[in-house]
Amino acid sequence: MIMSFFDQFLSPSLIGIPLIALAILIPWLAFPTPTSRWLNNRLITLQAWFINRFIYQLMQPMNFGGHKWAVLFTALMLFLISINLLGLLPYTFTPTTQLSLNMAFALPLWFTTVLIGMLNQPTIALGHLLPEGTPTPLVPILIIIETISLFIRPLALGVRLTANLTAGHLLMQLIATAAFVLLTIMPTVALLTSLILFLLTILEVAVAMIQAYVFVLLLSLYLQENV
């Protein structure tokens, strides 16, 4: 049976039962658990430093009301990074290549930030729909444009994460297939292709972490507008 390049993005199943829930829960097992030791090992120390720097950079522009989201944003970013990195391993499934999962993260969080703005400061929240100094004839058009751009935000969050990871996985599979086919025909070209694949894999590791950070960063910017 000929396998399609897009078959790697199908949700795995066992006896007709989808295993996407298992793929989502497994990354939590990789997180180090708290211990009663006075001194931490290098991994826990590095993780604590990374989390502290991330929270500092994310929460610095916000007022005190936005600091309540620090734990949620940190957990979400660690979760997305873990899923994205584990999805680069062979014979694994990346749940974040599914637009439905990314929208399930983006839509409720975006809606919550908008709801907070409408409840706490409705005048300022609605004022974002009309820039100051707009000519009177352009007021209806700009309100429509800004409203559309507001509702496109969660879709852009989900599509950005899905598209970047999907494109990277497809490119890696295409280059790996080319290297395998050229191995017996042109070994030198196959070696160069394998080198490109290795460099691309390093790039995809960086992309997996950056996209998780961008996802949470944009959510924090949306929250900053409404607190």
TrEMBL record:
Gene3D superfamilies: ATP synthase, F0 complex, subunit A. It is a multi-pass membrane protein. One of its GO terms (cellular component) is proton-transporting ATP synthase complex. One of its GO terms (molecular function) is proton-transporting ATP synthase activity, rotational mechanism. InterPro entries: ATP_synth_F0_asu (IPR000568), ATP_synth_F0_asu_AS (IPR023011), ATP_synth_F0_asu_bact/mt (IPR045083), F0_ATP_A_sf (IPR035908). Keywords: ATP synthesis, CF(0), Hydrogen ion transport, Ion transport, Membrane, Mitochondrion, Mitochondrion inner membrane, Transmembrane, Transmembrane helix, Transport. The chain crosses the membrane at residues 12-31, 69-89, 101-119, 139-158, 170-190, 196-223. It catalyses: H(+)(in) = H(+)(out). PROSITE patterns: ATPASE_A (PS00449). This is ATP synthase subunit a.
